[in-house]
Prior knowledge:
The complex is a heterodimer of chains A (179) and B (543).
Chain A: H1 3-9, H2 11-23, H3 30-34, H4 42-59, H5 68-78, H6 85-104, H7 117-153, H8 155-158, H9 162-171
Helix pairs in contact in A: 2-4, 2-6, 4-5, 5-7, 6-7
Chain B: H1 6-10, H2 47-54, H3 80-94, H4 96-104, H5 116-121, H6 128-143, H7 145-150, H8 161-171, H9 179-183, H10 190-203, H11 209-221, H12 229-247, E1 262-265, H13 276-290, E2 294-296, H14 312-329, E3 333-336, H15 341-348, H16 350-353, E4 380-382, H17 383-392, E5 397-398, E6 408-410, H18 414-420, H19 424-433, E7 437-438, H20 464-470, H21 472-485, E8 489-492, H22 495-508, E9 513-516, H23 517-524, E10 525-526
Parallel strand pairs in B: 1-2, 1-3, 3-4, 6-7, 6-8, 8-9
Antiparallel strand pairs in B: 5-10
Amino acid sequence: xxxxxxxxxxxxxxxxxWIERTLDSYTSPGFFKKSKDPFANPxxxxxxxxxTEVFDLLLAGADQQAYLAPLDRVVRIRxxxxxxxxxxxxxxxxxxxxxxxxxxxxxxxxxLLSQLDNLDCExxxxxxxxxxxxxxxxxxxxxxxxxxxxxxxxILTDAACPSAVMxxxxxxxxxxxxx
Amino acid sequence: MAVVKVDMLARSVAEGPSLMTGSIPxxxxxxVPVVFKPGNYAYPTKPEKLxxxxxxxxxxxxxxxxxNPEDDDWKLPDNWKEIILQGIADRLDKFRSLKIFMDCCVxxxxxxxxxxxxxxTGDPKxxxxxxxxxxxxxxxxxxxxxxxxxxxxxxxxxxxxxVLKEWFMYAYQCTECRRCSVFCPYxxxxxxxxxxxxxxxxxxxxxxxxAMEPASNSNRTGNHMGLTPQxxxxxxxxxxxxxxxxxxxxxxxxxxxxxxxxxxITPSADVFAEPGIFTCMGYxxxxxxxxxxxxxxxxxxxGGNFGLFTNNELMKKLNAKMYAEAKRLGVRWILxxxxxxxWRVLHQYMDxxxxxxxxxxxxxxPITGTVFDNAKSTKMIHISEFTADLIKNNKxxxxxxxxxxxxxxxxxxxxxxxxxxxxxxxxxxxxxxxxNWVEMPENTIREKTFCCGSGTALNTDEIMExxxxxxLPRANAVKYVHDKHDVNTLACVCAIDRATLTTLMxxxxxxxxxxxxxxxxxxxxxxxxEQRQDLTEGLRTLV
Lengths: 179, 543
């Protein structure tokens, strides 16, 4: 059996394990796994659909560019959650482990374990692309902070009370007093 | 007493080696301590702000000090535990709702997956039921017979510094949006539980600066920004100059004018920060078009009431300021701008705190003659109600083609939607000012609307990650209508929304801009004698 064929045949199981493990990185993932409503459960559904699309693209031998949208869907979420950078993109690399687990459990697919070098390489590339997206997301986060500060909202926390300043100046005349 | 099932709600099992380990719970939720690190807490109140507020009549904000959430020692007063337990006792006595909310929850879990903080984090303590349990466990231990005898067996626990720290973490990961309450079969208002947690924390000097400094500014100069009367007036006049450049219409608003028919109060962000200023230009144009006899106040120069996020005494004081000013100026009624929580305070607490406002008249539109009986008690109506009535009575001329650049969707701001039932008026206005707008999915709008994620004074930049993840459910629905219908504008009726949804969109759906509803009205408004330039982006056009 060819590797691609084996992956296509085991797609359901690979995806189910992969998504399950990814969602297990949340403290209380029951709802994320269960609810299929994309609006009631944005984390679970975006991660499920994103990973599914990534796997489909992998089977189709897609161009690197094609991975960006589904990867963005997954990584943009994890980039603002309570994960280290490594934990945020780890699910992509974990696909290797999941594929090995699934293939090693079947008699026909077990021999294919020695042919995974190219797939592993491809998954590494996907993970690196995910890391790029992660960094872009973090940069956007800091740009957001700067934008808010520049928009003048910082005055909220830095405003001096004019009458208090005046009172202070009257009480403590500095070198420029009366100028 | 109901059996505690919340720990089951919070548990999960995972097997196998993982690169992502670290967050799988192995302990009961009560035994997982909170850890403060940069980015997961808002900065504490500056001591001088707290001292100022504490010095004000009718307010009490004791124990001002420098402290850092990351330190082990929060420099609590020696008798902090006594203060907290007495604080709970006082509030159980004073607020019947709190007593009921503490007792009646059966932990059915209906609220568990409705909170945007839980949906964005997967953290069980962000389930409303568990967030309330943080207080309820202490209540049970100290104020119920079963809890006093059986303690942990019936879900009770000792009040410790660890519990106090947990309160601070999670009382400030709730925006009091009340989406969970919509789904609660008992109608428990989790926002009020958060309010109580925040009040209790203030008793020992624990609070966040982003709530307290605006509240302190508001108490002093009349608005969050601390703008002086001169600066406030100057800002509005700048906007009038902009309006003249864009439309050829000269608007001359008045300030602190005694004897005006109407007092107009809006969030100060509308006269100060983008994109609120475009909404403000919309108000100014509308009032000019209909010749409304109104005045601004440079003292009641803030609709927002950060007291709501602080404690009930401060909320009462800031709300009273609007009415004191209405009385001083001798107006007949008050017109309120696009604000969020001002309306929650007004509709749900005003009467008990400061009402009835019997020195004012029931609002009656001088243009259409419509009497707003719904505001019989508060004497204050929302700009969307007022505008919808003008449109319905054909009193303003609107040209939708002036909003041709807009493909809109509407975000129901939590407080106007859930706390005052303002659901159809903004939609009616939108129908008449834009050609094209679409609704987001059913379970993300109207009463079930998702919060912007930054309400209740959480709109500060140091917790940007928290804001982005808690805003995900909202942004996710916007992304859907953007992808499917090319939506490029998110319309709303709240100043915090205008500011924070802009930031949220920049992260999740950068193609979508945020606009106040009155900005879209201002874009479409046809005024006699105008010499309008070709405004391809409405009032935002740079000319």
